[in-house]
Amino acid sequence: GSTSLKNACVAWITVCTALCVVSLCQLLVRSHDQTIEMERSNTSLGVVEMSGFVCGYISCVFYLGSRFPQLYKNFQRRSTEGTSYLLFALAMMGNCTYGLSLVLKMPATKSFRGPYFLHHLPWLLGSFGVLFLDIFVS
After folding, report:
1. Where found, per UniProt (predicted)?
2. Of 2, 12, 20, 124, which alpha carbon lies 20 to 30 A from 61's?
3. 21-65: pLDDT as tens digits
Protein backbone atom coordinates (compact mmCIF):
# COMPACT_ATOMS: atom_id res chain seq x y z
CA GLY A 1 0.00 0.00 0.00
CA SER A 2 1.79 3.04 1.34
CA THR A 3 5.34 1.81 0.64
CA SER A 4 4.62 0.95 -2.97
CA LEU A 5 2.90 4.32 -3.48
CA LYS A 6 5.91 6.09 -1.99
CA ASN A 7 8.26 4.09 -4.25
CA ALA A 8 6.13 4.94 -7.29
CA CYS A 9 6.23 8.65 -6.38
CA VAL A 10 10.01 8.56 -5.94
CA ALA A 11 10.38 6.77 -9.28
CA TRP A 12 8.07 9.30 -10.94
CA ILE A 13 10.06 12.25 -9.56
CA THR A 14 13.33 10.62 -10.64
CA VAL A 15 12.08 10.02 -14.19
CA CYS A 16 10.67 13.56 -14.47
CA THR A 17 13.92 15.07 -13.19
CA ALA A 18 15.95 12.99 -15.64
CA LEU A 19 13.67 14.02 -18.51
CA CYS A 20 14.00 17.69 -17.55
CA VAL A 21 17.80 17.43 -17.46
CA VAL A 22 17.86 15.63 -20.83
CA SER A 23 15.50 18.22 -22.32
CA LEU A 24 17.65 21.12 -21.10
CA CYS A 25 20.75 19.45 -22.52
CA GLN A 26 18.96 18.94 -25.82
CA LEU A 27 18.00 22.61 -25.94
CA LEU A 28 21.63 23.55 -25.42
CA VAL A 29 22.69 21.14 -28.17
CA ARG A 30 20.00 22.53 -30.46
CA SER A 31 21.14 26.13 -30.04
CA HIS A 32 24.77 25.12 -30.50
CA ASP A 33 24.23 22.95 -33.57
CA GLN A 34 21.43 24.95 -35.18
CA THR A 35 23.43 25.67 -38.33
CA ILE A 36 24.31 21.99 -38.76
CA GLU A 37 20.67 20.97 -38.33
CA MET A 38 19.56 23.39 -41.05
CA GLU A 39 21.94 21.76 -43.53
CA ARG A 40 20.58 18.25 -42.88
CA SER A 41 17.93 16.67 -45.01
CA ASN A 42 14.33 17.11 -43.86
CA THR A 43 13.75 13.34 -44.06
CA SER A 44 16.31 12.39 -41.39
CA LEU A 45 15.73 12.78 -37.68
CA GLY A 46 18.39 14.38 -35.54
CA VAL A 47 19.11 13.70 -31.89
CA VAL A 48 16.90 16.57 -30.78
CA GLU A 49 13.90 15.44 -32.87
CA MET A 50 14.31 11.82 -31.77
CA SER A 51 14.48 12.97 -28.14
CA GLY A 52 11.20 14.79 -28.69
CA PHE A 53 9.57 11.62 -30.02
CA VAL A 54 10.92 9.56 -27.12
CA CYS A 55 9.63 12.14 -24.62
CA GLY A 56 6.28 12.18 -26.44
CA TYR A 57 5.87 8.40 -26.20
CA ILE A 58 7.02 8.33 -22.56
CA SER A 59 4.49 11.08 -21.84
CA CYS A 60 1.80 9.07 -23.65
CA VAL A 61 2.53 5.96 -21.55
CA PHE A 62 2.42 7.91 -18.27
CA TYR A 63 -0.67 9.84 -19.32
CA LEU A 64 -2.56 6.70 -20.32
CA GLY A 65 -1.29 4.90 -17.23
CA SER A 66 -2.60 7.66 -14.97
CA ARG A 67 -6.19 6.51 -15.44
CA PHE A 68 -5.71 2.85 -14.56
CA PRO A 69 -5.38 3.35 -10.77
CA GLN A 70 -8.77 5.12 -10.73
CA LEU A 71 -10.32 2.44 -12.93
CA TYR A 72 -8.91 -0.28 -10.65
CA LYS A 73 -10.12 1.51 -7.51
CA ASN A 74 -13.61 1.93 -8.97
CA PHE A 75 -13.66 -1.73 -9.99
CA GLN A 76 -12.51 -2.91 -6.54
CA ARG A 77 -15.08 -0.74 -4.74
CA ARG A 78 -17.74 -1.35 -7.39
CA SER A 79 -18.51 2.34 -7.01
CA THR A 80 -17.50 5.74 -8.37
CA GLU A 81 -18.22 7.45 -5.06
CA GLY A 82 -15.72 10.19 -4.31
CA THR A 83 -14.75 10.68 -7.95
CA SER A 84 -14.65 14.31 -9.01
CA TYR A 85 -16.86 14.31 -12.08
CA LEU A 86 -16.02 17.94 -12.81
CA LEU A 87 -12.34 17.04 -13.00
CA PHE A 88 -13.02 14.22 -15.44
CA ALA A 89 -15.51 16.30 -17.46
CA LEU A 90 -12.99 19.11 -17.87
CA ALA A 91 -10.20 16.64 -18.64
CA MET A 92 -12.42 14.96 -21.24
CA MET A 93 -13.25 18.29 -22.88
CA GLY A 94 -9.58 19.29 -22.84
CA ASN A 95 -8.44 16.00 -24.37
CA CYS A 96 -11.19 16.10 -26.98
CA THR A 97 -10.40 19.64 -28.09
CA TYR A 98 -6.64 19.01 -28.04
CA GLY A 99 -6.98 15.86 -30.15
CA LEU A 100 -9.35 17.62 -32.53
CA SER A 101 -6.95 20.53 -32.88
CA LEU A 102 -4.25 18.11 -34.04
CA VAL A 103 -6.63 16.40 -36.47
CA LEU A 104 -8.08 19.64 -37.85
CA LYS A 105 -4.60 21.07 -38.34
CA MET A 106 -3.71 18.13 -40.60
CA PRO A 107 -2.27 19.28 -43.94
CA ALA A 108 -4.60 19.34 -46.93
CA THR A 109 -1.99 17.74 -49.20
CA LYS A 110 -2.19 13.95 -48.98
CA SER A 111 1.59 13.50 -49.26
CA PHE A 112 2.09 15.47 -46.03
CA ARG A 113 -0.66 13.72 -44.04
CA GLY A 114 1.30 10.53 -43.30
CA PRO A 115 4.37 12.26 -41.89
CA TYR A 116 2.16 14.71 -39.97
CA PHE A 117 0.15 11.85 -38.45
CA LEU A 118 3.29 9.91 -37.47
CA HIS A 119 4.88 13.05 -36.05
CA HIS A 120 1.85 13.73 -33.83
CA LEU A 121 0.99 10.09 -33.02
CA PRO A 122 2.09 10.07 -29.34
CA TRP A 123 -0.02 13.14 -28.59
CA LEU A 124 -3.00 11.80 -30.52
CA LEU A 125 -2.78 8.49 -28.65
CA GLY A 126 -2.45 10.30 -25.35
CA SER A 127 -5.37 12.67 -25.82
CA PHE A 128 -7.84 10.29 -27.47
CA GLY A 129 -6.68 7.29 -25.39
CA VAL A 130 -7.23 9.11 -22.10
CA LEU A 131 -10.55 10.41 -23.41
CA PHE A 132 -11.58 6.80 -24.04
CA LEU A 133 -10.43 5.72 -20.54
CA ASP A 134 -12.18 8.70 -18.91
CA ILE A 135 -15.46 7.48 -20.38
CA PHE A 136 -14.99 4.29 -18.35
CA VAL A 137 -14.01 6.20 -15.21
CA SER A 138 -17.10 8.37 -15.37
Report:
1. Membrane
2. 2
3. 766 666 666 655 554 544 454 555 677 777 778 888 888 888 888
